[in-house]
Amino acid sequence: MMENLDKNECLELLKNNYVGHLAYLSQSWPFVIPITYYFNSDDNSIISYSSEGHKIEAMRKNTAVSLEVEEITTIDNWKSVLVLGIFEEVNGIDAKYLLNQFSKGVKENLDKNKNTTPHFINEFSSKSDSMNIPIVYKLKIQEIFGKVRRP
């Protein structure tokens, strides 16, 4: 049986996870890629970062994006949430603050859910190996939808 998740259940799913699938448009084509994220409940946004490249260039041109996060136990026991949001690049001291919040939040989530505590950001995010300055961004949540299927 499939049902809708209410808003609180959707937010809880976002809060309890740290990997999702980001969708954005580039030259009229949709792209979907996995990202590591942190849900910031204080301002109802998704925090992430990346190096300069295709994804960042595309989101700067078309700021409408979506993020899908799921928890799948079996084929007929899963939850999924879809966030519709607006890309917002963050700079300066605000970017440094959000990157710190991202790092702490993902580490806490990993510790809680996987019984492991990483010591460095590169243990859960591949972009930290880049020598470039990271591009920190937020996805300002505009709408959120969720589905659940229970056996």
UniProtKB/TrEMBL annotation:
InterPro entries, per the entry: Pyridox_Oxase-rel (IPR024747), Split_barrel_FMN-bd (IPR012349)
Q: Which domain of life is it from?
A: Bacteria
**Protein name per the record:** Flavin mononucleotide-binding protein
Tell me the organism.
Urechidicola croceus
